[in-house]
C-alpha cells in the first residue's frame, strides 16, 4: 500500500502453520469446511481487489466464479479425469475472458450504475446457463471424475483424493495471496489505489483509467475463476445457482464483513460467513433470517466490518465509546 | 517569436443557452507566462477546463503544435504534455506527498502495467517526484500524508503533482488561492523559474502577482476576450479599466 | 404471426411494461431523490403479492385485500425509513447495498415462516374475469386490460403529482439540490419519508395487481428487482419518464423475445441493456 506500513505483529506464518497441520487432527467434515473457507477466501480476495482496492463495487462477481466452474465440467471428459494442465488454465482464462467482455460494458458506468449493471450482466450469464442446454440447463451438470495432474503415465496430483485436494487448495490460497500482495505494491496496484482515491485526478494526470480498471477487472475475474475451479472440484457438480446473484451478494458480504481493502479482511469475512452459515444452518432451516439480522446489525453499528471490532472495543474501553465517522 | 505550443481558436462552450466561453482565441508560447484575468463568471475556469479536456467544447478548435486536439480525452492531452492544476485542491488525500507525486510521475511510463515489480523501485520516477516536490518547496513534508497538510501546502502539492508529469504546457487555475503571503511569494518565484521551459496559462485573482509575473495578459468578461497584450497595454487600456479594473475591486471567490 | 396474435402480444407487453414501471418508478425516485440504492425494493413487490393472497383468503374479497394491503405497505415503508434508511443517507452505497441485501434475506424468510414456500394462485375478481373475443380462437382477458388501465391511471397521477403539486415541486427541487431545499425551510426528512413510503406502496400495489395473473411464489421479488435495475439503467437513474419508456421497451423486448426465440427469451432484455450502455452509458434520460 502507498501508505507507510505500520509495524504490526505478523500472524500470517502462524495461520499458515495451523492450516497446514489442521488435517492431521481434523475430521473429514472439518477438513472440507476449512477447504471451503479457503476457496471462498480466494473468491473474496479477488472481489476485494475491485471493491476494496479499486473502489469498484461489483455485484456480479459470481459470474466469473460460475463460468469457470462450468468450464471445469465442460473441459473434462465425461467418465475420465480431466487433465489439470488443461482444465485449470482453462478455468482461469474463462473467468478472465468473461470479465474482459463484461468489463468492456460495465466499466463505462460509475457508482450506483456500476452496482446495478454488474448485477444485471451476472444475471444475463445466469440465464445463459439456466435457459440453454450448454451446461445442463437449470439442473446443472456433474463433474463425475475430478481432474488430475499427470506426467506421462504417472499421476502426480489427484483432486479426487480429499487430502491432496486440501493441500492443493491451501497451496493455491498462498499463491493467490502472494500474487495479490505483489500486484498491490506494483505500479498497477498503486494506480488502482489512485483510482479508488481520486479517479478524476488520475485522468487529469494522464492515466488511461479505463484500461487500468479493465486490467483490475480481468485479474479479479481470473482469480474468481481459480476459486470457481476449486469449488467445482470440491463439490463435483455445478448448477446455475453458483452464478446467482445470491452468490454475488454473499461474496460481497464476506468482503465487507471482513473489512474492505485488506486481504486478511477477506479471509476473516469468508471464515465468518461460512461458519455463520454452518452454525445458523444447524439451528434452523430459516438460517437466512439470522444471517440477515447479523448483516443489518453489522451495517447499523459496525460500519468498518468485523475486523474493526478489536479497534472499536479498545476505543470503547479507553476512549469511552467514540463511534462512527 | 518563441515556439507556439498551444492555441485556442474561436473556442466556445455553452451551458444550456448561456455562453460560458464565446469565441475565445489565445496563444501560448514556450517561455511565455500568459495570465488570464477577469471577474467571477468571466469564464476563466471554463477556458482551462476546455483546454485540459475536462469539458468538451461546443465550438472552435484547440491546437497543440498545430494539431487539432479538440476531441482528445483529458488523459490523452495530459500524456501529450498538457498539465493542469485545479482551483479546488484535487489530490490523493490518503497518500503521502511523495506517493502523490510518484504516482503522477508514473503516468509517464509505459511500464505502468508491469505487475511483478515494486512501484517504488523505479529510481527515475522517484527522482522525478522528489524533484517536483523540491521545486514546489515541499521537501520537508515529503513523507506526510497529504490529507493532513495545511491548505497552503496542499496548493503547493497540487503544483508539484503537475510538475511531476513533466508537462510542456501548464494550465494553472488560481494556484495562489488561499495561500499566505510567504507561500505566495515562493509560488511567484517558482512560476518565474518555470516560465523559460514551459508554456504557462495562469488564471489568478491576485493582481499584484499577475502583473509581477505575466508576459502576456488576456482579460475576459462574460466569456469573451476583452483585451489581450503585454501588461503595460492592459494597465493602460480604457476598455479594461471601464469593464473591470475601474468597477471597483474584483470580488474574491 | 397473424394480427390478433400480434395484438395480444402487444397488449401483453404493454401490461408487463406498465407493471414494471410501477415498481421501477419507486426505485428510481428513491435513488434520484434520496441517493439510496435499495435492493429490497423487489421484496415490497413480493410482499404486496403475498398480502393480496393472504388477505383475499382471509376476507374473501380482493378489493378489501388491496385496501388493507396498501395501508399496511405504506406503514411498512414509513417504519423502515424511520428505523433504518434514514440512518443511511450519509453512508456510501456499499452500506446501503449490504443493509438492503440483509433485508431481502429477512423478508424472504419471514415470508417463508408466515405463508410457506408453496406457489399460490389468487382468483381474479368475478367482475373482471371475462374475456374479450378477438377472433374465433383467440380472446383477451379483461383483467389484463384492467391492469394496464390502472397502471396508466397511476402513471398519470404521478405525472400530475410531480408536475403540478407542491409536494412534487419539493420532490423536484430535492432531487437537484438537497442543501437548497433545506435552506428554503422545506422539511426534507418528511419528503424523504413520503417518497420512500410512496415507492414501497407502489411496488407492493404492483405485486397485488399482478398476483391474480402471475400467482405468488418465493423469489418473485428478486426476479422483478433485477429487471427493474435494467429498467433504471436503460431509463437513467432518477428519471421517472426514462423509467416509463424503458419499462415499455423491456415489456416489448421480453414479450416478443419469447415469441421469436423462446429459448433465449431470458437474455433479450439484457442484450437490450448492453446495447443502451454502449450507446448511452448514463441511460436514455437523465433526471426527472
TrEMBL record, chain A:
Membrane topology: Multi-pass membrane protein
Annotated Pfam families: BPD_transp_2
Keywords of the record: Cell membrane, Membrane, Transmembrane, Transmembrane helix
Location, primary (coarse class): membrane
Stretches that traverse the bilayer: 12-30, 42-72, 84-107, 112-129, 165-184, 205-231, 251-275, 287-306
Organism the protein comes from: Aromatoleum toluvorans
InterPro entries on file: ABC_transp_permease, LivM-like
Cellular compartment(s): Cell membrane
Protein's UniProt name: Branched-chain amino acid ABC transporter permease
TrEMBL record, chain B:
Molecular functions (GO terms): ATP binding
InterPro entries linked: AAA+_ATPase, ABC_AA/LPS_Transport, ABC_transporter-like_ATP-bd, BCA_ABC_TP_C, P-loop_NTPase
Entry keyword annotation includes Nucleotide-binding: yes
Keyword tags: ATP-binding, Cell membrane, Membrane, Nucleotide-binding, Transport
Residue ranges annotated for the ABC transporter domain, each copy included: 6-247
Protein name: ATP-binding cassette domain-containing protein
Organism of provenance: Aromatoleum toluvorans
Automatic annotation (TrEMBL), chain C:
Database matches in InterPro entries: ABC_transp_permease, BCAA_transport_permease
Topology in membrane: Multi-pass membrane protein
Entry's transmembrane regions: 16-40, 61-85, 142-162, 190-212, 224-252, 264-281
CDD domains referenced in this protein's UniProt entry, alphabetically: TM_PBP1_LivH_like
Localization terms from the record: Cell membrane
Stored Pfam families: BPD_transp_2
Keywords: Amino-acid transport, Cell membrane, Membrane, Transmembrane, Transmembrane helix, Transport
Stored PANTHER family: ABC TRANSPORTER ATP-BINDING PROTEIN, BRANCHED-CHAIN AMINO ACID TRANSPORT SYSTEM PERMEASE PROTEIN LIVH
Homology family: Belongs to the binding-protein-dependent transport system permease family. LivHM subfamily.
Protein name: Branched-chain amino acid ABC transporter permease
UniProt lineage: Bacteria, Pseudomonadati, Pseudomonadota, Betaproteobacteria, Rhodocyclales
